[in-house]
């Protein structure tokens, strides 16, 4: 994505980031971003960070739905609202390159065998089937799995042509304990349980999973929001305002969230744009290879002895994630 590359490199040209007229950081992977941008504001932080990352070629942005009646957006047009939010971010960042932004389905899958029909599903299939590029494709899902599950049901051959990076799912008992007063069905899994059952139970899709115990590590202190994000131009102010408005809203409901906020979707950037230079991989984060469990109708894991190996991340390099985010905001708004 040329303009995203320009946004980072242009302010850095005087700092030795170009040599002999050549850009030093170029895309080495394709990504499709799928997130509930009208919901938890962590998705907006993740989107801004990815748009500032020159090593990724963003092939599409999908606004996805929440669970029916969700407190963040209880409308019947959640996916449409999410796509509108994504366009708002692109406009705010003055990104005019042709990145497709579209709404996914406003509802989840009726069951784990019936795909939804949406323009976003077609986007995923078409991008996965491209033969004119060798760049690997990652589908980054920070919420439910409606569109990617539907895409694989409609075109099973794409399972060998992309990697799904998903923020979601409960803890694995042998890796971590759930938090106090946890919800029995993890939040993102509960957005579309049928879609998750499709992905885990019915496909061979490669999965890098960031379950609840891992994504809860991405804690942003309010002090850093005020000192590293809010002063950084229109984008920093926009992101800070979305979070502060939520904090005020929660106060009205007598909910005290303390002085940190979980930017749980930002590991999508860490595991892709911030991979190691040689033998590319998220080398500073830790995962276990596990047999993909079957997800049951209650949203729990059932052991599957013939499940395919998937990555389950347990420890994330949060210092790398946040220092890169703050630095890119500063470079874009010196």
Structural class: alpha/beta
Strand content: 15-25%
Give the strand order, joined by hyphens, for the main sheet: 5-4-3-6-7-8-14-11
* Sheet with most strands: 8 strands, mixed
Question: What is the CATH topology classification name?
Answer: Inosine-uridine Nucleoside N-ribohydrolase, Chain A
Round the mean pLDDT to the nearest integer and report it. 93
Cα-based radius of gyration, to the nearest Å? 19 Å
Would you identify the regions where 5 or more consecutive residues have pLDDT less than 50? 1-17
Shape annotation? globular
The helix content, as a percent range, equals 25-40%
- Under the CATH scheme, the architecture is Alpha-Beta Complex
**How many helical stretches?**
12
How many separate domains make up the residues? Answer: 1
Number of strands: 14
Order of helices and strands: HEEEHEHEHEHEHHEHEHHEHEEEEH
**Separation of termini?**
22 Å
The named CATH superfamily: Ribonucleoside hydrolase-like
């Amino acid at each position: 994505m040329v303009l995203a590359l320009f946004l980072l490199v242009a302010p850095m040209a005087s700092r030795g980031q170009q040599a002999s007229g050549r850009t030093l950081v170029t895309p080495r992977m394709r990504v499709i971003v799928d997130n509930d941008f009208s919901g938890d504001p962590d998705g907006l932080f993740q989107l801004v960070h990815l748009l500032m990352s020159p090593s990724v070629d963003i092939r599409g942005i999908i606004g996805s739905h929440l669970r029916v009646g969700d407190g963040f957006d209880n409308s019947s047009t959640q996916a449409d609202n999410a796509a509108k939010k994504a366009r708002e971010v692109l406009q705010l960042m003055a990104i005019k390159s042709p990145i497709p932004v579209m709404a996914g389905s406003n509802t989840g899958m009726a069951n784990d065998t019936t795909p939804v029909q949406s323009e976003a599903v077609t986007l995923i299939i078409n991008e996965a089937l491209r033969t004119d590029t060798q760049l690997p494709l990652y589908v980054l899902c920070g919420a439910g799995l409606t569109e990617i599950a539907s895409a694989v049901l409609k075109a099973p051959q794409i399972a060998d042509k992309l990697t799904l990076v998903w923020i979601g799912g409960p803890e694995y008992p042998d890796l971590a304990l759930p938090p106090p007063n946890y919800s029995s069905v993890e939040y993102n899994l509960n957005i579309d349980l049928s879609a998750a059952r499709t992905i885990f139970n019915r496909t061979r899709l490669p999965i890098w999973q960031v379950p609840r115990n891992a994504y809860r590590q991405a804690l942003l202190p309010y002090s850093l929001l005020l000192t590293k994000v809010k002063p950084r131009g229109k984008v920093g102010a926009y992101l800070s305002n979305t979070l502060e408005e939520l904090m005020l809203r929660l106060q009205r409901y007598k909910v005290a969230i303390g002085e940190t906020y979980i930017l749980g979707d930002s590991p999508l950037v860490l595991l892709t744009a911030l991979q190691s230079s040689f033998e590319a991989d998220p080398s500073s984060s830790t995962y276990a290879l596990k047999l993909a469990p079957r997800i049951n109708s209650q949203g729990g894991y059932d052991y599957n002895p013939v499940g395919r190996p998937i990555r389950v991340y347990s420890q994330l390099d949060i210092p790398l994630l946040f220092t890169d985010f703050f630095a890119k905001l500063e470079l874009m708004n010196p």
